[in-house]
Amino acid sequence: MLGSTIINQRQHVGLQKLSALAAVAHSTLGPHKKYKFIQDEATGDSVLASSCLRILDNLDVATCSVGQLVHETIRAHHEIYHTGSGCLLFFAGAWSQTALSCLHQGIPAMHVVAAMIEGIEFCMDLCKKSNISFNKLFALTWNHEKEALMDSKVCRGRRQVKLSRHFYNTKTESIPVQEPRLPDVAHLANRLSHGCDDGMHLVIQASQIQLKATPNSAFDVTKVTTCMLPGLSEDLAHVVPGCVVLLNAEQTSVAHHMKDKPLNVVFILGDLSHTYRHLGLKKHAGVKHVSDQSGLSDLSKEEEWMEKVLRLLLQLQVDLVMVSGLVNELVIQRCSQRRILVVGKVRMFILKEMANAAGAIMVTYATQLSKHCVGKNIQVSIWKEIYCHEGTPLTAVRVNVTGCTRFVTAVITSPVNGKLQALEDRFWACAYRVHHALKDKAVLPGAGTVEMLCILHLKKKAEVQNPRNGISASNPYISIVFNLLADSFTEYLSTVMANSTGISHVNARTALNQKLQDINGISAEFSPLMLDSDESAPSYKVVDNFTVKQESWRRALDLVLLVFQTDAEIITGVDKSKHDSQTDLMFL
Prior knowledge:
Layout: H1 13-23, E1 36-39, E2 46-49, H2 52-57, H3 65-81, H4 85-104, H5 109-130, E3 132-133, H6 134-137, H7 139-154, E4 158-162, E5 168-172, H8 185-192, H9 197-213, E6 224-230, E7 238-241, E8 243-247, H10 249-258, E9 263-268, H11 298-315, E10 320-323, H12 329-337, E11 341-343, H13 348-358, E12 375-387, E13 393-401, E14 408-414, H14 417-440, E15 442-445, H15 449-464, H16 478-501, H17 505-520, E16 543-545, H18 546-572
Helix pairs in contact: 1-4, 1-18, 3-18, 4-5, 4-16, 4-18, 5-15, 5-16, 5-18, 8-9, 8-14, 9-14, 10-12, 15-16, 16-17
């Protein structure tokens, strides 16, 4: 997992492993993400991955406590934000190097931690001061629209008004100028695309369909789902109204039988299998109860459960079962034989909205179903039938519920099956960038602007608090730490620049340092405007998410400090008698 990285077994192994692991995902930074081909030596299976989460998903990190912690941190961040994971992992590695460098210089751990926290909080504050409200972001666009509108009206302002058949008078009529409408999602999406134009185009399509269904409403990412169709050109990707799901041949025959008929539907939150237990009821390994010793084999238990579920579904006259999690293949097969369609892996948000619109009550287990859980006003229609390159027939059906008019499905297509997951991830990253921007009602200047501000201000603050200047600071090492943090932001921008332009990392760093020197020579005070080519009218053609960037930095620092503390406790040991004084330990 850590490749050929040499680990010093005597000092802070956790920080070294974190830094080495973060380097694996450097290629995922920037708008032009590179695919990594990952092969399992044991089974020979292989996958294509272009995001740090998918790379970690396919690496054996369970054997390494740091790797497992990193994986869980990245996954938790991804489940909430769907973007910014690469930034998080990069800075976790970079700040691990910062801490290691400080330790190698003999700086005490407590001073390292205090200075790192102060430095990143300082950068967070810069982030807040640099945010751009929507009013400011679109002020330039609004002004251009308003001027054009005024010009068109003025061409028609002054005109001859007939007072009588003998007299004419020149009169200026007061013509109300129509205020420009609030910018639509397209204005915002184009600035947030970050090079993923195809994915963002689908987001714009989805927002337009939603806007047509419900005018004067914002883009709602919770009512968007995806359907991946293999074997088709990527150019055929598009967005369609309703919830589209892909069925196999056995499910398709059931769908043809029930198409365009009113159906009875039930909704299950979780997996549909006899072994599924929700998180609160997970059994500990090795723990057995007397009631479990019935002598029945796992096969007979599954068959008993299956028969009970089928009887219940038939008794309630259920036609369609929609599940948020995975569905046991045996369940799909047995239900299809009884002309009951089972659809799994439906987004939880979609499932909840459908259940509300259908008048159904969601359950966790199929055995909990009753007549009060059955919903109506739902229809299934055949949308498209395709054949993938293996010759397997697949059918995409559209599931519609009366009252759910804002549901849309982004159909992701590719002739390369291995790319579908990456294309879907990129679509969701685009969708959630727009979602978080609308939620924040503000964005940050992009293209590295905020990071350059952090570099300049950190270096300036480090110079001011340098002990050789005769200034006594509470932390005598703050100047060293701040300069190292500035270097971490420089390394980040250099990596993004190298990935984006194809130039070498050395040339990227040289160009970036030159730009920073040019800006530094302008004035002692810095603002986002100074990093724009035209200070008088910043265009903000590229913007970043405010909350996502801050959360990426915060989680990265939390991860580094947690590993740092663990390493320190392993090296120095834990003396319980000194817990009260807290002199030797760092508590987060």
